[in-house]
Design goal:
alpha/beta; Rossmann fold; 2 domains; seven-stranded parallel beta sheet; six-stranded parallel beta sheet; elongated
């Protein structure tokens, strides 16, 4: 098959990562994928790096160029250059519905789906998590929605370091929804109780700055025990340097690449119950979003029992291998598109 993968966001996100892994799986099975994406976007960079073709699609704020771009895509589709279009956002689903090709909608974001001609045009609908499938059901659109969860290759296992202060890490973009404030308040509770721990934060600046987090750590009088890493090149080096992972998100998390990465890294993980996170983390290690005291209590249990922490890390890695294999993701993805053909 020749598949047009349409993604109109400029940045790299869980949604984009799903689209990229999907393209790799389809190509490995002998199918051709071309991206329709904004110039300068993460998708265009991925396509160039991995040897996929790409066609220009205006970004979300570029409304003037959109009609011409859609007309050109229609001409390309009419010439038989593609057998199907895969839309990764609501806007590209509408564009895909206008191209006259069999349409697959892949949803890996938290926006509530709505009925309309674009939804009716979709021949297949893929939800990247059970949580997203639930969004479809609550909108009355769940019939036929198929869950295909993203897989992950296990990195080499780095054993936890013996002795010294326990390093507790949070990896994610700097945004209020990611719960950095909650993480710092939980750290203050633990350090106030005498915990021998350090708290590490990594990720790129979005709607928060590292200066904001440093001021908050100073206000809580814990800045000597908080380490800021900035943007990191890949997750696993940072995770290997931590003993415990935390996801403190207040919302969103339609899918959670970070949760999957913590599991694959073989680290114990304490998380809020926002979005899809209960699909990755056992109930014993979930806390309500925004509850810093509950987060501190769960982390305190792991700090007090290193053997339990090590066992949880090993169980997490085994779960990543059993439930989130790249082979299973690829097989389900290829099967869906070949059914469409």
């Amino acid at each position: 098959m020749k598949i047009l993968s349409a993604i109109d966001i400029p940045w790299n996100s869980g949604l984009a990562a799903y689209a990229f892994d999907q393209a790799l799986a389809l190509r490995a099975a002998g199918h051709a994928v071309v991206f329709a994406c904004p110039p300068g976007s993460a998708a265009e960079a991925f396509a160039a790096r991995e040897g996929f073709g790409s066609l220009p699609l205006p970004g979300r704020k570029d409304h003037l160029r959109l009609p011409l771009a859609v007309w050109r895509l229609r001409q390309t589709a009419a010439a038989g250059q593609f057998d199907a279009v895969c839309a990764h956002t609501g806007r590209t689903q509408t564009i895909g519905a206008l191209l006259g090709l069999p349409l697959v909608r892949v949803k890996a974001d938290v926006r509530v789906p709505s009925a309309g001609f674009a939804q009716r045009a979709a021949r297949r609908t893929v939800a990247a998590s059970e949580y997203i499938k639930g969004l479809y059901w609550r909108a009355g659109l769940g019939e036929g929605v198929r869950v295909i969860r993203q897989g992950i290759d296990l990195p080499p296992l780095t054993p936890p370091r013996p002795g010294g202060k326990i390093k507790i890490g949070l990896l994610g973009r700097l945004d209020p929804v990611k719960g950095h404030e909650v993480f710092l308040k939980a750290a203050a509770l633990l350090l106030g109780g005498g915990a021998a721990a350090e708290f590490h934060i990594a990720g790129y600046e979005a709607n928060l700055k590292y200066a904001d987090l440093l001021r908050r750590a100073e206000d809580l009088e814990i800045d000597a025990s908080v380490v800021f890493h900035g943007r990191v090149d890949g997750p696993f080096k940072f995770m290997a340097g931590c003993d415990i992972g935390v996801i403190a998100s207040l919302g969103s998390e339609a899918v959670s690449r970070a949760a999957l990465e913590w599991l694959a890294a073989g680290r114990p993980l304490v998380s809020t119950s926002a979005g899809s996170l209960p699909e990755y983390v056992d109930a014993d290690w979930l806390v309500p979003p925004g509850d810093h005291a509950a987060l501190a209590e769960k982390l305190g249990r792991l700090l007090a029992d290193p053997a339990a922490a090590a066992a949880l890390g090993a169980a997490n890695r085994a779960r990543a291998a059993a439930e989130f294999s790249t082979a299973a993701f690829a097989a389900a993805t290829v099967k869906l598109f070949e059914e469409l053909a």
